[in-house]
Every structure is written in structure tokens, then in C-alpha cells.
């Protein structure tokens, strides 16, 4: 829209010389292979062993993954597993007990509305 507005106001476009050849880019091996596959330059042949497709080729990826999972040793039941012993609680000095109680904080008792309205100091 901006270019069209500027053209309406009288801006002239500069002519460009297209005498240079366009830049050519070299394809990567992957792009070359993909181009060959798209153009069907090569025909793939089935691999046959003794007149039949090998069993490893017949399986799909899902079956191969499931077979790998099944070949692993089974997990032990949770009831059979042994847990590491719980860390021993160290006996703390009175200073540590005080700091722990401060860190835990304390739940304050709720104040009744009647007590809130009373003045603290009378004098």
C-alpha cells in the first residue's frame, strides 16, 4: 500500500540492469537424492533371500520396537524392591530447635469481631 501511495504522489521507479546471470546454488547431497526420488530416476528393487523377503524387512517399525521392549528383562514388583534406609534425624541443639520453630511459623488464632473494635489503650 505504501508503494502505491508513493507512486500516486509522483515517485519514479529506478530502472535496474538485469545483465548479470542469476546466482546458482549447489544442491546438498540430501537435496540431490530427494530430487532423484521425485523424478523417479531410480527404481528400487525388493531384497529377496531364497525367493522370499527377509523377516527383518517384513516387520514394521512398531513391531520392531515392541519386540525390543519384550526382550528386556522384566521389572521387579514393588513389593520385592528394597528402599534405602531413611536418613537418621540428628539430635539438634536448643538453638537449632528454636530456629526450626521460627522457620515453620505459627498459625495465629482468629480474633473475634468484638475484640477488634475495642481500643487498645485507655487513658
UniProtKB/TrEMBL annotation:
A single GO BP annotation from the record?
Answer: cleavage furrow formation
- Per UniProt, what is one GO molecular function of this protein? microtubule binding
Listed Pfam families: WH2
| WH2 domain sequence ranges | 94-111
Cellular component terms, GO, for this chain's entry? cell cortex; cytoplasmic vesicle membrane
Which PANTHER family does the UniProt record give? PROTEIN SPIRE, SPIRE
UniProt-recorded name of the protein: WH2 domain-containing protein
Origin organism is Anopheles culicifacies
Amino acid at each position: 500500500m505504501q508503494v502505491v501511495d508513493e507512486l500516486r504522489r509522483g515517485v519514479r521507479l529506478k530502472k535496474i540492469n538485469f545483465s548479470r546471470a542469476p546466482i546458482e546454488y549447489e544442491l546438498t547431497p540430501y537435496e540431490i537424492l530427494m530430487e532423484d526420488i521425485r523424478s523417479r530416476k531410480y527404481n528400487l528393487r525388493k531384497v529377496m533371500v531364497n525367493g522370499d523377503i527377509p523377516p527383518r524387512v517384513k516387520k514394521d517399525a512398531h513391531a520392531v520396537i515392541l519386540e525390543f521392549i519384550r526382550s528386556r528383562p522384566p521389572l521387579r514388583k514393588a513389593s520385592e524392591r528394597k528402599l534405602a534406609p531413611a536418613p537418621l534425624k540428628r539430635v539438634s541443639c536448643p538453638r537449632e530447635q528454636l530456629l526450626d520453630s521460627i522457620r515453620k511459623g505459627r498459625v495465629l488464632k482468629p480474633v473475634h469481631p468484638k475484640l477488634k473494635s475495642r481500643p487498645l489503650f485507655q487513658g
